[in-house]
Every structure is written in C-alpha cells, then in structure tokens.
Amino acid sequence: MRIFTAFFALSLLLPGGAMTRVQAAEEPTADWQKSLTPLSAGKFAEMPEGEASYRFGWSGITAAEAVLKFSHPAATPGVSRLDAEVQTVGAARALWRLDAKALFLADTASTKPLRVRQLEQYRGRTVASALEFAPDHVFHSKGRLAHASDRPAPEFFSGAPADREAMRAFTGQKARRFKAAEVLDMQSALLFVRSQPLAPGDVLRFLVFQDNAAYLAVVRVAGREKITVPAGTYPAIKLDLSLKWVDDKLTLRPHANFKRASGWISDDKNRLLLKVESDVFIGSIWGELTKFTKRTGKPSGQVPGGFVSCGG
Hints:
By secondary structure, the chain is mainly beta. Helices cover about 10% and strands about 50% of the residues.
C-alpha cells in the first residue's frame, strides 16, 4: 500500500515513502533503543472529531485523493478511531488502479495503538493486512486474497480484537510476532506527536510499525511558519522526519526508498495535518489538506453528530 503509506508518512509515516530533512548529526547513538522518547502522551487536547479530505501525488501530478474520519465512538469509550479511504484518480488511475480502506484504533488517553486493518484493491488482486498491538510486541499478518473479488469476513472492519488464528483467517497468512516494546502505528504516531509541546528544536524518536515492517522515526520540530493549502491559510508547525528500517533482530537498516521529507501541522487547537512533502524513489511526493469538517455536538452510539466546515 505504498502510495497510501507514503502520504501518511507524516501523517506520520511510511513504507515506500515518507517525510524529512534530517541531518546525519541527528542519528541516534549505537545503542539506539536507549535514545527512544518515552511514550507519554502530552497535555495538548485530543484530536477533534471530524472529516479531513486530502489530495496527493508526485511532482505536479495529482495522483490520489483520501478521506480521513476521526471519531471517539460512544460504543467504545476511551478509544480513538480513524477510518481512512484512498483511491487513485485521473491519469494515475488509468496506469495504477487502487482503492484502499483502513481502520486504526488507539487508546485516547495514552495515544498508544490497539489494532489496524487495511484492505487494498488493485486491478487483478486484493491484499488484506491486520495488526494487533501489545505492550511488548506486535502481531502482523498480510496476504493476497485468493481472488481479486474476495473480501475478508465482515468483522474485519468491526474494530474487535483478533487472535492469531482470526488474523490468519482474514489474510490467509500466518500472523508473525515483532518483539519490541512501545511500538506505534501511523495514527497513534500522529496522536503522540501532536500531543507534545513541539517547541522549536524538539526531537522525538520512536518505533512505528506499518504494513509488515518496523521503522525508527526521528521527528524534529523545524519551526513555525504560515502556509496556504486548498483548505485555507494556517499558522503551522513544520516537522522534519527521518526513517530507518528496523529488522526482526532490532538492527537498524537504511530505508532504501526514502530520502527526506517535511510535514506541517496547524499551530492551533486542532493541530491538523496540513501538508507533506517527501523525496522518495519515484521522485517528489506531496499531500495537502483540501477540506476539514469538524463534528459539532456529541453523537449518541455511533450515529454522527452535526458537522461544521473549518477554514484556515
């Protein structure tokens, strides 16, 4: 799901793409695990409920569109939920058809991940993946379904936990264990980073697991500036990101497809992801917010409340 993960690589992150502008001097020490930032949620307000729309692509070509829905369902108190859908568009779709859907669940108070589900539909094949997070490990399973028209069981996107056998039933592949403590996913990485003070010069180092691989992410606060995206003009916090692949033996390896990236989040009470620019193996990838609609009122059960459009 490289185009999807490349965009969220400062959503915050990953395989196939991402963001940064980190200097070699910022590399962690040889005993890199001791340099990790403790995963204690900061005091900044939690992510607001609402719907964010993005467009992204490479060079000057719009290649895909995404819709992200953030919620705190009353049926699952204490849980932050992100439902994401992305599809290629225009000329890019003619060359590479992709329709993808993902679900991310995290503990709201700690910002730590619970589970992830992803379904990628290409022309001629469908790929499903599932992640289950525990304090000292991640179970991960990814597989190509037997037929392109196949879909996982209905409970795949229910948000319910799954054991290793259920994960295998979803994807057709054995669930493997990545042994490491306090690992984030893409949504929880964004929740964790945005919760921090983010003073200029601050550096955050943490592990992120996405798709079927782990990465050491180093996020540096580059400063504050005003930027304009289709959704409006915002005061913004600029973040730079570097990535290293982490193998099963917890050895750091270069990320072959990643060069550098930068991302901007709004410097306001929402701290929305506004923009990302990344240099990867296919060139320059970019993404930008086109619209954010904030939920107003508190829904009962899982019935959406009212929404109001938020400009810059």
